[in-house]
Amino acid sequence: MKYRRKETVEAVQWDGTNQEDVKAFARQFALFDYADTNHDGKTFDAVLKIKTMHHIVPAEIGDYVVRGTKGDFFVAKREEFEAKYEEER
Prior knowledge:
Elements: E1 10-13, H1 19-26, E2 30-35, E3 45-51, E4 56-59, E5 64-67, E6 73-76, H2 78-84
Antiparallel strand pairs: 1-5, 2-3, 3-4, 5-6
């Protein structure tokens, strides 16, 4: 037997520079820190964390921030998300 996911979710992909898009989508569930990943004291990259139902989860560049069917938020790895969902047109 074959099974298909029934739910439709909304999501935005984190690219490391789209803080405003993520903030607009996830509102108070999106938390940002800034880290000097180049260790030059001048360049600070955004670090995204998402408040889920039980934890605060870091998101890596390429991950998707997903709003579930019950309004909850979670982080999905790009490969896993794209294997499970396809964009509606």
